[in-house]
């Protein structure tokens, strides 16, 4: 009998060792690590970022999209083994030398030592996995100023070149002698963006100029913190400054519901005829000259008829009254409130123009017009311009202009009216003017928000308007008047000249606000040449020859706005490359072009500021803010590099930094005047004041204390002036002027309270 076979003893199951998901420093301190390579985010914020290290198996945790040859030497020879163990299915290809690739995501790379990923080493499905990994592991980007990874020094990364030494073994060797990027190489850039919020509730600002610039001030937060900590007092003015930053019109009238309106209620909102006449003149001089909306003789004739029938509302068209209210609201900030009150015979509330806009908007909503005619389009255009002039609904402006474009297309305004025989010559010309105004409004808002425009040149074939005066265009005429030469200034000169560059500016906006900028630098230079050619061909109309002050102001404003519109497009295409010019010599032309553009924009602003207040306010726009921040970023970079690898003029031409700073300070004064008149804008003013002080501190460190105190005085004076303007207004509520009602608050307490809330805004 055979002996029972004893079963072999079972070996104890060895549990697999859990892979480490943190660097050595975070693991020892039992802290959550974001696994950023080669240095995690927590260690970068610490005192010893060089101590951040990972164990040899760290690559095992990385996604299978990483190519072993693209990892730094720090990982050692285990990179290829680790990637294979993770089941990597990446297919290696030879790198195309004609393509220059950027960082994997928008500004995520912190230094050139970080692994450089190229699309040439990744198949298409794997590239999508890589993007999702960066979003889920590194976290969705918030505001660019709050994100450390948005402050990366490089936007364009040139890939290392891999040469196959043995096709059978498919092994690659890295060549260190990388040739420089040429203008004919294909650029593939992921532009920086700005996003606030979290999860599904976010607000997106695209890859505009500001998103690229703010990321270049990594020390701004620390500088603002120094100002806050310079004084121990934190209680005196903080509540009042928070009220200013959030807007003083929250309780009234913005939160008060607007009742249903009719013709009588709209007429009751109008001031005296003297006030209406003055505001209408300001509108026709400063707004209508650059936004062709009305036919001036027809509008003035309808206005005269309105005064005749004012006492009998049933004889007045409510659409005209709503249009008149919006016209007055567009010009409200251009007038002197004290002078208007004298002409009105009674006091005017500070939010009178806001009520005009809200009541007119309510009437438009309740009108329920099924088929939009030119009057409806005019109302929507005036509503957008009026809201923008008072800082209302800025976050919805891109939606409003896009809807307006679609509404006009549904009415056929995007097709040239010569295709239809049932349209009179007068209405054909008015349709062309309205369509051009709508497209320009949408393009301008797209530049401001960093978003693509709602249409392209191929989406319409409407001819540009004629260069004629409104007096030459008669409603009953059977033929259109003879067009005048561009050298002769007319009521439509602005539209006619600007329309010549519309296709170029649409192309620039679409290219620079795309998720990825795929073009050759030669194309950027070509676009620059075409825009500059039109910029140099702007007619030199003589304002002194026009006869009246109003006509002279129209000529000056028209020429300035033409330069600003074209200059903004040039700034848009050059800013991302100009920022990288100190590290990539290929982009030096963009750096030089940007310096010329910002100097032109800010010099024009100063010239109009010295001429008149209304001209200065009308000339302000997104281009002014972009030029302001561009100069600050340029001087900040020069100060940080001490003249090394910077634009030669800034450190070789004596007095140029001082001249640029003086232009920036004048622009800040102009912006301060405007921001006192809008619903919200204090945060923007606080922010820009701090950037200017930071740059001046970098340029002249010995006066750093004075510049920090200058920020305090600017912000406190801004808030105190704003409260003083509304001291007798009921919308301030029970708090009234708060701590500003007395002069007993010492300046030392101002310093700490000054930016307590606004530094928190930078962090949040």
Automatic annotation (TrEMBL):
Residues 106-119, 162-175 have a biased composition (Polar residues). Residues 22-54 form the Zn(2)-C6 fungal-type domain. Coiled coil: none annotated. CDD domains: fungal_TF_MHR (cd12148), GAL4 (cd00067). The keyword Transcription regulation applies. Gene3D superfamilies: Zn(2)-C6 fungal-type DNA-binding domain. It comes from the Eukaryota. Keywords: DNA-binding, Metal-binding, Nucleus, Transcription, Transcription regulation, Zinc. It holds the Pfam family Fungal_trans. Residues 92-119, 162-185 are annotated as: Disordered. Transmembrane segments: none annotated. InterPro entries: Fungal_TF_Env_Response, XnlR_reg_dom, Zn2-C6_fun-type_DNA-bd_sf, Zn2Cys6_DnaBD. This is Zn(2)-C6 fungal-type domain-containing protein.
């Amino acid at each position: 009998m055979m002996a029972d076979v004893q079963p072999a003893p079972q070996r104890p199951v060895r549990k697999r060792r859990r892979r480490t998901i943190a660097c050595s420093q975070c693991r020892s301190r039992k802290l959550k690590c974001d696994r950023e390579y080669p240095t995690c985010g927590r260690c970068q914020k610490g005192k010893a970022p060089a101590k951040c290290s990972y164990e040899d198996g760290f690559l095992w945790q990385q996604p299978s999209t990483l190519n072993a040859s693209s990892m730094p030497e720090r990982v050692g020879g285990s990179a290829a083994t680790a990637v294979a163990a993770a089941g990597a299915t990446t297919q290696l290809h030879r790198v195309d030398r004609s393509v220059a690739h950027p960082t994997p995501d928008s500004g995520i790379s912190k230094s050139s030592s970080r692994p450089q990923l190229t699309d040439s080493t990744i198949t298409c499905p794997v590239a999508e996995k890589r993007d999702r990994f960066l979003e889920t592991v590194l976290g969705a980007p918030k505001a660019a100023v709050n994100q450390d990874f948005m402050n990366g020094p490089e936007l364009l990364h040139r890939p290392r070149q891999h040469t196959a030494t043995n096709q059978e073994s498919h092994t690659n060797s890295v060549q260190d002698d990388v040739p420089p990027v040429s203008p004919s190489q294909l650029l593939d850039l992921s532009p920086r963006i700005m996003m606030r919020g979290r999860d599904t509730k976010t607000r997106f600002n695209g890859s505009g100029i500001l998103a690229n610039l703010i990321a270049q001030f990594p020390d701004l937060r620390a500088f603002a913190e120094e100002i806050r900590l310079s004084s121990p007092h934190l209680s005196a003015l903080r509540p009042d400054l928070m009220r200013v930053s959030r807007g003083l019109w929250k309780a009234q009238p913005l939160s008060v519901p607007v009742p249903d309106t009719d013709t009588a209620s709209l007429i009751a909102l109008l001031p005296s005829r003297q006030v209406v006449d003055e505001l209408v003149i300001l509108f026709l001089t400063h707004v209508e000259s650059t936004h062709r909306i009305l036919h001036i003789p027809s509008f003035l004739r309808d206005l005269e008829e309105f005064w005749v029938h004012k006492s009998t509302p049933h004889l007045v068209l409510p659409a005209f009254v709503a249009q008149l209210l919006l016209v007055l609201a567009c010009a409200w900030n251009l007038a002197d409130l004290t002078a208007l009150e004298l002409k009105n015979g009674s006091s005017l509330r500070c939010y009178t123009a806001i009520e005009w806009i809200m009541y007119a908007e309510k009437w438009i909503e309740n009108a329920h017009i099924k088929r939009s005619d030119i009057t409806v389009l005019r109302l929507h255009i005036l509503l957008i311009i009026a809201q923008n002039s008072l800082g209302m609904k800025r976050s919805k402006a891109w939606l409003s202009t896009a809807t307006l474009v679609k509404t006009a297309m549904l009415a056929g305004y995007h097709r040239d009216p010569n295709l239809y025989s049932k349209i009179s010559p007068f209405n054909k010309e008015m349709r062309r003017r309205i369509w051009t105004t709508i497209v320009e409004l949408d393009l301008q808002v797209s530049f401001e928000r960093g978003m693509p425009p709602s249409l392209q040149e191929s989406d319409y074939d409407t001819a540009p308007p004629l260069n004629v005066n409104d007096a030459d265009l008669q409603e009953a005429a059977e033929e259109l008047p003879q067009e005048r030469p561009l050298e002769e200034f007319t009521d439509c000169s602005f539209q006619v000249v600007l329309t010549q560059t519309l296709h170029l500016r649409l192309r620039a906006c679409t290219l620079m606000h795309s998720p990825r900028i795929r073009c050759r630098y030669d194309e950027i230079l070509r676009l620059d040449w075409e825009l500059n050619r039109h910029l140099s061909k702007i007619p030199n109309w003589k304002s002194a020859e026009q006869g009246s002050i109003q006509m002279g102001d129209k000529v000056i404003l028209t020429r300035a706005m033409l330069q600003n519109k074209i200059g903004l497009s040039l700034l848009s295409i050059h800013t991302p490359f100009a920022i990288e010019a100190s590290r990539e010599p290929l982009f030096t032309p963009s750096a030089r072009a940007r310096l010329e553009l910002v100097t032109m924009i800010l010099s024009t602003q100063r010239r109009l500021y010295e001429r008149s207040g209304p001209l200065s306010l009308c000339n302000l726009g997104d281009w002014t803010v972009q030029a302001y921040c561009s100069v600050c970023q340029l001087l900040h970079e020069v100060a940080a590099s001490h003249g090394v690898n910077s634009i030669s003029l800034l450190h070789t031409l004596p007095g140029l930094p001082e001249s640029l700073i003086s232009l920036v300070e004048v622009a800040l004064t102009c912006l301060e005047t405007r921001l006192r008149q809008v619903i919200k804008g204090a945060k923007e003013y606080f922010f820009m004041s701090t950037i200017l002080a930071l740059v001046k501190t970098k340029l002249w460190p010995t006066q750093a204390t004075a510049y920090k105190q200058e920020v305090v005085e600017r912000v406190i004076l801004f808030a105190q002036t704003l409260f003083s303007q509304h001291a007798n207004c009921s919308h301030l509520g029970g708090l009234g002027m708060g701590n500003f009602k007395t002069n007993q608050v010492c300046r030392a307490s101002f310093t700490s309270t000054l930016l307590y809330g606004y530094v928190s805004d930078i962090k949040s």
